[in-house]
Design brief:
The structure is a homodimer of 373-residue chains. With 373 residues, the first copy, chain A, is an alpha/beta fold. Chain A is built from 14 helices and 19 strands. The first copy, chain A, has two domains: 109 residues, NAD(P)-binding Rossmann-like Domain (Rossmann fold); 208 residues, Dihydrodipicolinate Reductase, domain 2 (2-Layer Sandwich).
């Protein structure tokens, strides 16, 4: 396998290092705008030099971002090259275009590192689907949010302190919105649910609530009620009805989710015959992420292409009712749905997930968290 | 794939049901001493009728026990048939004979359901080994012990009550020794370590301490110190030195292990590049176990044989020092190694795992538990 590697940042460099020790694959060219030299690979600033190199059969995209990653990946597929990427935003956003294109050309398109970093989550979904159907996927998919929430819970920090500590440690970006607003988790949920259920979810109908409005007072409030807050994704299917959403969720202390520390992930599926299975590990970082990129290269060599057959677009129905903790805003709807209060915060009667998220859109200063059942 | 199914108990019946819905495999004959009739398979009391049936390419062994499972499996391999089994005792005990025999004949030998039931643990080790080396395997591998310890911890039951509840629910056998004395976990550890490290551990040097001497007073003692007891296996490798043991282990409340409820398993590996990964799920039960048997059939169809190349026998060195909780016996050695006491129980200074287990052999009424680091 001859690889054209796009990007030589955290993940790209890790892929280069791991593949350097192998004899079944070789990074032949690296697209990188910086002035570096590599012993075993040609460094180029020109994507065309990779695109037109017929000896390169596989493009590993490790640039991140939507553009020009999208143009490069699309071009590589059109030129007959296999794609391996860790770019969840790219795959979730252009799912309906890139997956059918790869499948129509008989090319591999793999993205295991895009969800769960070092966890073999998407590849396990691929295995699970050989024998059973999956009724639920989801869990803690963003290490940055878990780090912030864990610091607030264990150390009693407020949100701003926990965020700046995460930034100092390199766990959070200077502009943390993609993580803390739930967008990264949203991409990972869409990708997981599409593959687990063999469909393409209507993304616009999948809501995401983030953690940026949580306060130390909320965390004390949760503790007093024996609860721990995590940012969690949920995707379900039953009888052709699909539900999917991202939201802070409160677990009883003692639940597996509540025990997930620092920047780790815990991702869960519910299988028709195997039951509940959860996968715990490093959701990000150079080597864990590069590890699954290289795993995908090995899988491709073994003839594995995508994880499932591309499935048609399906609607999302979030009419399922949950109980929520709400603080920071009020109106007639919330008052009508208030079951009790915890130190000024509202605990709702069961309300539809879609309704709660619609309310949050109109009350963006509020913090909401579902109470796990 | 034409299957000869040995045994029609809990697991065998599950395999029959799951395969009945597939068109890539078929249970052609079932070895069963009871008088049953099946719509799609011939039932026989005579193993020879399976052995000499050339249309049967794969034998699924779901009888359990060492004999005649061993004779049947060995005979089937010699007759050129692939083997799929969930029998951990069989594979761990005859590892040095059956694996080389299967490999010399180019036959598949798979046993994913033997460790972790419905968790794809051994198949994940197979995947991990494609890219990295593993330095540690282990965890909570026995649902019966976890159920008993969890009941004692959450409900305050004493050992006898928790055991008889587990027996009433079908989680424990009438003679529970294989589970509560750590033998089942010991088999699973040996199998996991052999595959993860690509060796054959010297089984006689792998000690197992069980849970049958634990009391409600011990559990209260642990709670007072913020600890939760689990039966845990550990296998490590570093620089060609291998360590392996099974023992009750005390985790801080809040640790992932401490949160594993009822009869679930949590199995962990530490990978050179992927870091720590843990796998949580149903470690036993008809459908979870049968699920991974069928997964192995699918893997075999895809050309996957065993999980690793058979590796030569290696010594086990348990000189690593740990701190232990000890109650129920005393002597000069224990007194010399006492660091403190908790309500009459000894907390040792760090002592070698091998020494602690040797002491336990001479003091079989004692209960020991390592304190996790």
């Amino acid at each position: 396998m001859k690889i054209g590697l796009l990007g030589f940042g955290v993940v790209g460099r890790g892929v280069y290092e791991i593949t350097a020790a192998r004899d079944d694959m070789q990074v032949a060219k690296v697209l990188c705008l910086e002035d570096i030299q590599l012993p075993d690979a040609e460094v180029t600033r020109d994507f065309q030099s990779i695109l037109t190199d017929d000896s390169i059969d596989t493009v590993v995209e490790a640039m991140g971002g939507l553009h020009p990653a999208y143009e490069f990946v699309r071009g590589a597929l059109e030129a007959g090259k296999n794609i391996i990427t860790s770019n969840k935003a790219l795959v979730a956003t252009f799912y309906d275009e890139l997956i059918p294109l790869a499948q129509s050309k008989g090319l591999a398109f793999r993205c295991t590192a895009a969800v769960g970093g070092g966890i073999g989550w998407l590849s396990e979904l691929e295995r699970v689907r050989r024998v059973e159907t999956v009724s639920m996927v989801g869990g803690i998919m963003n290490g940055t949010c878990n780090y912030i929430l864990d610091s607030m819970t264990r150390l009693g920090l407020d949100y701003a302190e926990a965020l700046s500590q995460a930034q100092a440690l390199g766990y959070a970006e200077r502009n943390p919105s993609t993580d803390v607003d739930g967008i990264d988790t949203w991409h990972k949920l869409i990708l997981s649910a599409n593959i687990a259920f063999g469909v393409s979810l209507d993304r616009d109908a999948v809501p995401a609530a983030g953690i940026s409005k949580i306060s130390a007072a909320d965390v004390s409030n949760f503790k007093e009620h024996g609860l721990t807050c995590k940012l969690v994704s949920t995707g379900t299917q039953a009888d052709g009805v699909y539900s999917a959403y991202v939201q802070p969720t409160l677990y009883p202390q003692g639940a597996l989710e509540a025990a997930v520390p620092t920047n780790f992930n815990l991702i869960t599926l519910d299988g028709e015959v195997s039951g509940r299975q959860s996968f715990y590990g490093q959701g990000a970082g150079r080597y864990p992420t590069a590890y699954n990129v290289v795993q995908d290269c090995v899988s491709q060599l073994a003839g594995k292409k995508f994880y499932c057959a591309y499935g048609e677009k399906v609607n999302v129905d979030n009419s399922v009712k949950l109980t929520y903790y709400v603080r920071g805003a009020s109106d007639a709807w919330l008052e009508a749905n208030t079951a009790e209060t915890w130190d000024g915060a509202v605990i709702t009667a069961p309300v539809a997930v879609a309704d709660m998220h619609a309310w949050l859109k109109n009350n963006p200063e509020a913090f909401i968290a579902a109470i796990a059942e």
